[in-house]
Queue: 2 jobs
Job 1
Amino acid sequence: MKDFSAWLSDMLVERGMSQKTLAQLTGVTGAAVTGWVNGRSEPRYEKIAAIAAALGVEVEDAVSRRTPVAPSGDVKWIFRVAPEDGGREGGNTATFAFSPSLEVLAREATQNSLDEQLPGSEPVVARHTLHELTGHHLRDFMDALGWESIEEHINAAADVRQKVGRVLRDGLQELERTQRLILLRVDDFNATGLTGPEFDDGRFARVVRRTLDSGKAGAQGGSFGLGKAALWAASRFGLVLVNSTLSEPEGGRTERRMAGRLELPWHTLDGVEYAGPGWFGTAAPGRQNTAQSWWGEKRAAESLYLERNDSAPGTSFLVVGAYDGSGETEDLEDMHDRLVKSLARNFWASMVGGMQEGAKLRASVAAFRNGEPVKTEEVIDPHVHEPARSRAVQAFLDGDTVEELTDRNQVLQTTVPLELRRRKDDMTSEDPGVHEAVLLLTPSGEDEQPDCIAYMRATRMVVKYKRVGDLPLGHRPFQAVLLAGAATRSLAPDAVAAEQFLRTAEPPDHNDWLGTEDLTATYERGARQKIMDFKKTAEQKVREVLRGQQDEASQDEGPEVLRDLLRLDPPKVTRSQGFPIVKAIEGAIDDTGAWDVTVTVKLPKRDEPWVLAAVPRFLTRSAGPLSVGWSKLFPLDGCALTPHGNLAFRDGATQGKFRGITDASSHPVSAAMSQVMVDVRRAKEELS
Amino acid sequence: MRTVFPYQVLSGDVTLRVEKLSVDNRPIRLERINDRAQVVALQDLEETNERWTEVRLRVSVSADGAELSSGPWKVPQCVAVVTNRRTNVYHAFPLHPQDEGTWVGDVELRREEHVGRSQLTASIVATVEDVEGRLIGASDAAWDVDFEAKVPAPERSMKMRWIDFAEHDHLKEYRDDPWLVDSEAGEPVLLLNSSVDGLRGVLENASTVEQKLVREIMASQVASEAWSAMFNAAVYACDVLDGEPQWPGGWHEDVLRKMIPDLYPDLSPEDALIELVEARTEGENGSDLQRRIMHGSGVQSRKPRKLTTALRDLRRMANKREIA
């Protein structure tokens, strides 16, 4: 806890109150106040209450020496004035690294949440909530947001000659035209929250103040600090609000640390040049023209759609004017489905839990229109979206894998070696040796995309899906998962080293393992090759597993050259037929117990007319079909009856139709117990 | 086959799948099951001994559950049916209902009841209009349970065996023949005479251009003769019932169906069968049929192409020699 003296002096600066005024308000001498401020003495409890009243804060704030809650009236937008050197920035560079689709947003934001998981705690809960606002819901929100004071800035920055400007202009016009705004709330729980001081290094400062700095280390996914930029990029206005519950108190508080940041390019307004970005907060005492985060009231958080419905630590981001930058959808339901799809596709493995290790993530998506649920909260079940792959990871986490597959639901486990390299800054150490990554393989169902390997490490986010080529013919479709580094559940040095090695091999989008510049700069020669070898070996391993005993089996079945010429299996492609066939038959049994059927015949084209004998036949189980007779035969379409009771089809006709009624006396069994077909044979009848 | 039932049947697909396999209670690798080709290969199982007694297949059947529950059918049940042509076995195994429209169960094959290949199908029966046990749906294509294949490949070739004709009494009189087709034991086998010096070497390990040329011509020749022999045997296997020729089933039918489109390109298979059997029984001098068989065997053994290629290679070799 802070010293009382430190708290008091901060509060006096914050309130712009002199020691003398405080002495008057609390009824003590100036010397007494000086003593409190210098830390020479501490006030008694009654005086503490008086001090709290004088400063306009709660008694509890003074007792616990915590930062008071800021009233909503104190919160405002403050924009950074352009630097004296006249330098201009065309918007936050980090946001350009992305194509700001919702898929990317969900992947990046969730990856960040996984990285901030509280050690040893429950799985991270990632909730995504879409709100569509119109009418008074929209007006109320805009009021709480202070839209009036930022609209003119956005307008001024919406210079259509720049990419960012066009997006802003588009956003303003869209809002004007539709009077509708979409908010996307991204919450995480059981994560660290935005801890740390306002301006120095810490999670808060990295997310809200800085652009390309993640400060991440070790097994975490994002090492480029781009993830948070995806949030800003998903807003038409570059506008994101934050509410965080901290895992470690800051200023004596943990709940409702709130802030906002608007990411605009350089602009001028009323003759003043602005650098671009603006912050939503209270004026920072002692700093000119700077906003700081504030500790908010419940009501204020609610009016900004930022109130968290759980006290677990973590952060809520509110993307104001959320849109899918790919331009493929504007629809709320569609956006919901896209988020679900992206989360399932990238994080199914993180969401799987087993007996030996639990899930790392629980993700859900919900959508509301003016507070009314449109899609109720859907907790994503990895087993529904990726059944085969999830089964593989679950079997691994249950310790329930096999060496040979004898059942479709089994999961085969084997290893893939990754040769490690030494770090350049640690060349004196021993050869780091070989890491044994885990390869899982399981038969897949009717998946859209079979025969793929999914690469992953610590967080079990899918780094990449790779289709395995060059597979044995007629192999069983499968899904494979390659768990490397910490994902192997090994705590051995090789797993730790592999985790770092692979992380360094990931490009900014974390979507592959490659010879990145970072990799060649960090590791001794050959690192790139080892990464390539690793991926190649994984694919090779899959092929070996699938080939199994197939290779040796095809021996001693005669010379290959003859096998090929003596194939007994029926030809796959049925050639275009040179004879008439029955295309369709329908019918029923009539009152007399005879079959009354209508038959459509398909005819190949030829010059002379087809003359066909139609033969009704009853199917049998034990032998071929038995022929029966007609009592009546009626040509219906494209054909005529010949003197011999055959059907003559019109010249050049490709189709014909007739109706026939069987002769019940010729039936071997009652028609009700039969199954009937009609053969069309070439008639032995010449037409004159 | 397009047929009409006197009552409503399922229009949706009925899918039969072999889920897993065990022999004498020992689970067998999934590689022995080929879903796409619908084949289970059971020869020379590593996991078990030669004298196994029982194969158990776990099978599942799925139909359109929604259609099934909305139709006029009562008490739908599902059976898996195993048949073997050689032993004339016909066994039905009732399966257990799981969810709506799916059934699961075990099919047991006793060793002494199955030879060669057995067929596995599934039928769904129900009470329709108060008649019990009516067929309302069946799996589209049968699964083959092949006791004489190691790999569940969709392709099947005629059996071949290298033997020394001189060492077998019944082949002694043919000891100088390089190959023969023997279909005495029910299924045709191409016997290759291993005592013919160099035959095996050329057919299996041709290395020089000349050897390869001979191999291709010879293979085409062997295959052509084999197809003719099989086709003739198949024609004689056709019974005539009430004046109508019947498909013979088994490999005979496979051979007929495979070759008939080349023998009678403008006849439907049924018409062609009538024509064939007539030619056999009445068959003036048989020359028309023999000509057609020769043509069909040539197509199967790719004789025209193999010959043209060989002649072209021969010319090239001659040219080369001249230049040298």
Note: The longest strand of chain B covers residues 117-128.
Job 2
Amino acid sequence: MTLWWIGDVVLLVVLLPVVVYLLHGVLAAAQSVVPTVRQIAGVAAAGSQDLDAGALLLTTRDQVSQTVAGVANYAGSLDVIIDDAS
Amino acid sequence: MPAAGVVMVVAVVLVVLALVYYLVSTIVALQRTAAGLDDVIENVGGIVAKSAPVNEIVLGINEQLDAGVDLLEGMLVRKAGLIDAVGLVDGLYPGAAAAGFRNVPDSAGLVVPRIGEVYTKGTLTLARLGREAPIAAASPAGPVLRNVEAGSHAARQLYPGGRPLHADALPRSPVIGSDAPIQYEQRDDIGAPRKRLPVPS
């Protein structure tokens, strides 16, 4: 009978607090991840939204191509009307 | 059942309840984390999808610009000569003469005239057109004759009160016709026989 009481005391005084302490630590760590993940999700959403203007690069490429073509035509005309240096 | 056994059962029940409470709470927290990570994955996937063609597009833009630079540099060297061409570019972009032209390896480090600093804008325009602008050739290593940062100072001295947009009064165009305020006499010799030189006797 004494061993039963010793077991009860160990169970209530040692095992239960240790279990509660360890599980509380796990729960605190798991809950601390949630706001961090939400912040990361917000940043990723903002980054994705910032890249919406990336599609305009296609327009920029077309504009650059047209500009370079115009410069080439202009340079061709200058090449005809201006004498070479040597 | 003895009292010790009852206490043991109660203690085990307490341990199980603690396990259930904390494990369920942990599961809920991990589910929230998983949901947040799903949002992260979705947005990161959007970032990846949107940034995927950027490299190709930027490379295309760079190729176009490189072709334009090669074209203009080549024509500038051919029309203005290497030294003047580098001087012109250095005048527009100070310090560019040290790097020289990409397609002309010997152009780096040349002693070029300070065209952009010394020449007036009109002369620089003429130089751009391929004509010689020998102003800088007189003292290429001397002090700067024209300050590019205050290049408008000399021009502004011509108009201390500000450059007028137009003259105060311009002469009006002459009015002609039968009802003109000023009538000019008609020349008598118009329509008459042409005068002839006297015949020597």
Note: Residues 2-50 of chain A form the longest helix (49 residues).
